[in-house]
Write a structure and sequence with these properties.
The protein is α/β, with parallel strands linked by helices. It has 6 helices and 6 strands. It folds into 2 domains: about 170 residues, Glycogen Phosphorylase B (Rossmann fold), CATH 3.40.50; about 40 residues, no CATH class. Strands 3-2-1-4-5-6 form a 6-stranded parallel β-sheet, covered by helices on one side. Helix 5 links the parallel strand 4 and strand 5.
Length: about 220
């Protein structure tokens, strides 16, 4: 049986809607001769738990969890929220919040975290992926985005192991919805576009889950 490594930032008990696609793919791949394994994070800032998704995970599925540098933990401190406060994703990109600390945090997120604020997982993911592929033979790497920084880690791991990788775009990259109405510098957009193009060039094939994602290529 061939082996495939999935990289996904979100994993149950996270209740992210975008999890349904990879969960179903991973669940049924063994029926087609592929044994999946998953590389993900130990925790993520916006986790809205949905324990019902746990039933989609096979008991024998190998899941490796690593640490990640979470900038949203610093966001809570900088904006005066409690360390244990639960964040809602929409509040960190809100245009209604007029406070100076929020405005500074929003600008930093939109312009300095390229391609997104989850880039802090990259070194941990690459290290764990490289270690796993040295210990076991895998035939392919699949990355699930957003966050699209996951594709960067997958591309690096696949290149080191000299195996193909396949990025899955649940949502667009440059044209993702939360960028609309936000201020991003020309340099930021240029670097982001360069990274997206590199990922598409390096992949054996790219998978777009929605038609909206195709707008990124136009």
């Amino acid at each position: 049986m061939k082996k495939v490594l999935f990289l996904t930032y979100y994993w149950p008990p996270s209740g992210k809607a975008s999890l349904h696609w990879p969960l179903k793919m991973i669940k049924y791949l063994p029926e087609f001769g592929w044994q999946p394994a998953v590389l993900t994070v130990e925790d993520e800032s916006f986790m809205q738990k949905d324990d019902s998704m746990m039933s989609e995970i096979a008991p024998d599925l190998k899941v490796i969890k690593t640490k990640s540098i979470e900038p949203f933990e610093f966001y809570k401190i900088f904006t005066g929220k409690g360390k244990d406060a639960q964040l809602v994703a929409s509040e960190t990109i809100s245009k209604e919040n007029k406070s100076l600390t929020h405005a500074i945090s929003l600008w930093i997120r939109m312009n300095l975290f390229i391609p997104d604020a989850r880039i802090g997982w990259y070194p941990f993911a690459v290290r764990a992926g490289n270690k796993l592929l040295l210990e076991e033979k895998f035939d392919a790497v699949v990355s699930i985005g957003p966050p699209h920084s996951v594709h960067l880690a997958a591309a690096k791991i696949a290149r080191n192991a000299q195996i193909p990788f396949y990025p899955v775009f649940i949502d667009p990259w440059l044209n993702i919805a939360y960028y609309k109405g936000q201020t991003r510098s020309k340099l930021t957009i240029m670097l982001d576009a360069f990274l997206e193009k590199r990922i598409l060039q390096k992949s054996r094939a790219s998978i777009f889950v929605t038609e909206t994602s195709l707008a990124d290529l136009c």
